[in-house]
Amino acid sequence: CTRQIAKVTDLAEGVPYFYRVAAENEYGVGEPCELTEPVVATEEPAPPKRLDIVDTTRSSVVLAWLKPDHDGGSRITSYLLEMKQKGTEVWREAGQTKQLTFTVEGLTENNEYEFRVRAKNDAGYSQPREAFSSVIIKEPQIEPTADLSGITKQLITCKAGSSFTIDIPISGRPIPKVAWKLEEMRLKETDRVTIKTTKDRTTLTVKDSMRGDSGKYYLTLENTAGVKTFTVTVIVIGRPGPVTRPIEISSVTAESCVLSWKEPEDDGGTDITNYIVEKRESGTTAWQLVNSSVKRTQIKVTHLTKYMEYTFRVSSENRFGV
C-alpha cells in the first residue's frame, strides 16, 4: 500500500480484529503501530420483525415489535419510532426506546396515523418496519365485566364481629363506573364500610360485621358500551335470636306441664343444634336448668311442686353459642 488509507475486505461479520501499520523504505520495515482496541466488522441491522398496534386511547397508542432476525454484527442499542398522519408524506420522530414496546402520546382523537420502527446498532439504523395498517386514535368501546372466579360459588361466609372483603377484578373501556348495593340499599362509605375502586379492581370491606350485613351484594358496572350487574352472597353467622313468642303451656297437672314454642326467626345463619329450657319459682330470682339438650320445640316438664307458680324460659343454641 503506497497511500495512507486502505480498505480491508473479506472480514467475518461480528468478529473483532486488531490492526497494525508499519512503514517500509529501501532499508527495510519499521516498527509497527498497533490499535489499542479491536474493530468489529458490522453493518446496519435487519428491520425489526412485525410492528403491532397493541392499544389506543383518546390521545395515545401503544406499539410493540420483535427483535430483528439479524443484528448486523453488533448489539442493538435502541429503536427509533416514526409516525405520520395518513395521506401525508413526511415521517417524523415519535420517540426512541431500548424496549420492545413504546407509547406514543399527544395524538389527536379521531385522526388516522401510520407508524414504523427502525433498529439501531453501531453501524446505524435499519430499514423501517411499518405497521400492517394505519390506526384511528380513539377510546375502544368494550362492555364492562367482572371476574368472580376468585370467590367460590359467589358465596362469602363470615363470623359476626369480624370483617369481610369482596375483592373483584373489573375491566371495560372506557373505565366503567362502579356502584355497590346490599339488596335494595345503595352502599356508601361509613365507619364500617369501605369502598376502594381503581381502573381494574373494586374492593368492598365491611368491619365489625353483623347479622344484618347478610344478603345479596350487587356490583353494577356501567360505561358507554353497556351495563352489567354481578351478585355475591354474604352470610354473616353468629348466635341465634330468641325463640318466637309466645311459649305455650298445656297439659298442666299437679307435677308437670308441656311447653311448646316456635323456632327463632333468626337462626344465626346456621342450624339450631338444641334448645335450653329453664324454670324459676315464684318469689325467687334464681333460674334452674330443666334440660339443656332439647332437640324439638316441645318438652314435658316434670317434678314440679304442687301449687307452686313457675316462670319458664327457652333459649336456642347453635354452634356459635346461645
From TrEMBL:
Q: Name one GO molecular function term.
A: structural constituent of muscle
Example GO BP: cardiac muscle tissue development
Q: Which GO terms describe its cellular component?
A: M band
Q: Tell me where on the tree of life, at the top rank, the source sits.
A: Eukaryota
Q: Which CDD domains match?
A: FN3 (cd00063), Ig_Titin_like (cd05748)
Q: Where is the Ig-like domain?
A: 140-233
Q: Which Gene3D superfamilies does this UniProt record tie to the protein?
A: Immunoglobulins
Q: Which PROSITE patterns match?
A: FN3 (PS50853), IG_LIKE (PS50835)
One Pfam family this sequence matches? fn3
Q: Which UniProt keywords apply?
A: Immunoglobulin domain, Repeat
Q: Which InterPro entries match?
A: FN3_dom (IPR003961), FN3_sf (IPR036116), Ig-like_dom (IPR007110), Ig-like_dom_sf (IPR036179), Ig-like_fold (IPR013783), Ig_I-set (IPR013098), Ig_sub (IPR003599)
Q: Which residues form the Fibronectin type-III domain?
A: 1-45, 47-140, 242-322
User: Coiled-coil stretches, from where to where?
Assistant: none
Q: Which PANTHER family match?
A: MICROFIBRIL-ASSOCIATED GLYCOPROTEIN 3, TITIN
Q: What is this protein called?
A: Titin
